[in-house]
Amino acid sequence: xxxxxxxxxxxxxxxxxxxxxxxxxxxxxxxxxxxxxxxxxxxxxxxxxxxxxxxxxxxxxxxxxxxxxxxxxxxxxxxxxxxxxxxxxxxxxxxxxxxxxxxxxxxxxxxxxxxxxxxxxxxxxxxxxxxxxxxxxxxxxxxxxxxxxxxxxxxxxxxxxxxxxxxxxxxxxxxxxxxxxxxxxxxxxxxxxxxxxxxxxxxxxxxxxxxxxxxxxxxxxxxxxxxxxxxxxxxxxxxxxxxxxxxxxxxxxxxxxxxxxxxxxxxxxxxxxxxxxxxxxxxxxxxxxxxxxxxxxxxxxxxxxxxxxxxxxxxxxxxxxxxxxxxxxxxxxxxxxxxxxxxxxxxxxxxxxxxxxxxxxxxxxxxxxxxxxxxxxxxxxxxxxxxxxxxxxxxxxxxxxxxxxxxxxxxxxxxxxxxxxxxxxxxxxxxxxxxxxxxxxxxxxxxxxxxxxxxxxxxxxxxxxxxxxxxxxxxxxxxxxxxxxxxxxxxxxxxxxxxxxxxxxxxxxxxxxxxxxxxxxxxxxxxxxxxxxxxxxxxxxxxxxxxxxxxxxxxxxxxxxxxxxxxxxxxxxxxxxxxxxxxxxxxxxxxxxxxxxxxxxxxxxxxxxxxxxxxxxxxxxxxxxxxxxxxxxxxxxxxxxxxxxxxxxxxxxxxxxxxxxxxxxxxxxxxxxxxxxxxxxxxxxxxxxxxxxxxxxxxxxxxxxxxxxxxxxxxxxxxxxxxxxxxxxxxxxxxx
Length: 736
Ligand code: BGC
Known about the structure:
This protein is an alpha/beta fold. It has four domains: 26-42 and 51-238, TIM Barrel (Alpha-Beta Barrel); 289-506, 3-Layer(aba) Sandwich (Rossmann fold); 517-623, Immunoglobulins (Immunoglobulin-like, Sandwich), CATH 2.60.40.10; 660-729, no CATH class. 27% of the residues lie in helices and 19% in strands. A six-stranded mixed sheet has the order 10-16-15-14-11-13, sandwiched between helices. Strands 1-3-4-6-9 form a five-stranded parallel sheet. A four-stranded mixed sheet has the order 8-7-5-18, with no helix packed on it. The N and C termini lie close together (12 Å). The structure holds beta-D-glucopyranose (BGC).
């Protein structure tokens, strides 16, 4: 391309899987995942965690980290991962992940902080500030409304603007304004009919225009549809090395649908970030940070006094005691430096009881025999489905694990369950157990942390960052989660998670401690609220005090929103005055009709609670209105039309945007066989299958695997034009 007048396009797309080109005075940028530790690949690159990566510290997944409700800890984790990235010469770390957990069914929820925008935004902002303090750029992802995995590259998230602003964009807004990240990654999906990577409203109007973002935007890997359109909409870099871009950009320039000035704007922004010097700050990371995190991430959901364990005859059962679940699967997968297990740390006799997903009678028998010798059984269970590329069908735990638990319970022993996993699960099996500790996916040192909690050396202080529903079907998002793969109507509007008013099994914000706290003396005015917390138990412990605000009726807002939180640690008998200031997010509602934020006049009820369903104190303040009253969310959501091209016989006419699974109905027999074979081949690898099922054919060029003419040749063949297709397939040419 050198010597060509469009040589700047070189900068608009990756040079290879992880790097951009160095060109005309602009330095190359090196990217790496990710959210729970560095996934730096020296060898073959991939975006699903399939190939190896250099050993790195595996920190808790975002879902677990959020359960600490500790901003300082999130900062430190960001800083520590940033440090490892700096040492590996990574310029941009692809984290934090800020999508809202719209439904517990989303397979990638473990990578996200919370169902709540405020918690999500502030924990994410702290993480991003941490990364950037290490002299590495943070990249917020996936912007925006990327809330399910199935069909993620073709699906249109149809969201009314009020919901979009108040729920799905707020976390990004908070993180942009609080942390000033250098990069934002666009999501794979469409938003209201337009790919996020081509979405002028998201990129130019809101991100840059309204929030003042001055960094670069980068596509998700293979997540562009047309490079010219995305360039025009303000997408600076497309990743990885895409072989379609040049042709698309040149064609658009020729047609006059793209102006050179758009390319220039992207180039200038890339140059600014690529050439900036970023010094690491001198910050001391505490020793044992990963273990410390895991201690604060674990949530005690149930306890009749069995925990902490007393001196008694204890045994430990379950595969996950030998191999704890420390992380989820996909692009966030870290090659952990070390991971210990619970059975080797705790001095108790151990039996597997189960291995994998099938009941094994021999293992069960041995475990039950061991349990009979004990008076307390620690039973480790692990959820399934925490990976990128696919969603869950339900929240049930594997049947073999539940069956064995039922058998253990029948032995009339005290039973403590340690639950691993990155997402709310059905816990209807917990009625006859004595204690339940939710360990989440909390990184390589989680076993040591869990052991200390079980033994009472550490007092648990985590609180849920998402609702565990009594029944999945009670959540309004469930009805609108998995219908047509090509679009999702966000009909529940703002009623996501606890905001839906759902009766929870374990509520958002809930978590027990080995001590108790008393709340008293709330004072609230226009600037904030203050109150006293006292540790009235016998041991040192941490409490997360939560501030919720109920809006005046005219605001048409759902049940009280979380608008502040503070974690405090207190010795037995100690008390502390806690102050939570109101901020720009406390009293605002979005008026989609007039396109502005408003403050509704009236009485705002302030609640201080230990969970979203456990308010301890309340007060109210009355505020004047600003800008009027917002309309409720619109119920009239319509997807943009998505039509597959078909011939008269109903066969699909394949083009670059046709997803692989639809090629199964192509006109040409070869195409049908090709798609069936490709999907059959990966059917037992859910991450790969999920990612491939709705993969548009264009991505074969986007991942740098094929030249454009090769794919065009294939498409002709898929459509039954064998000779023309073969001629194109084998034609020689320099550029795609
Ligand atoms: C994921 C991103 C990730 C990228 C690179 C994509 O599949 O959605 O979160 O950063 O791959 O690995």
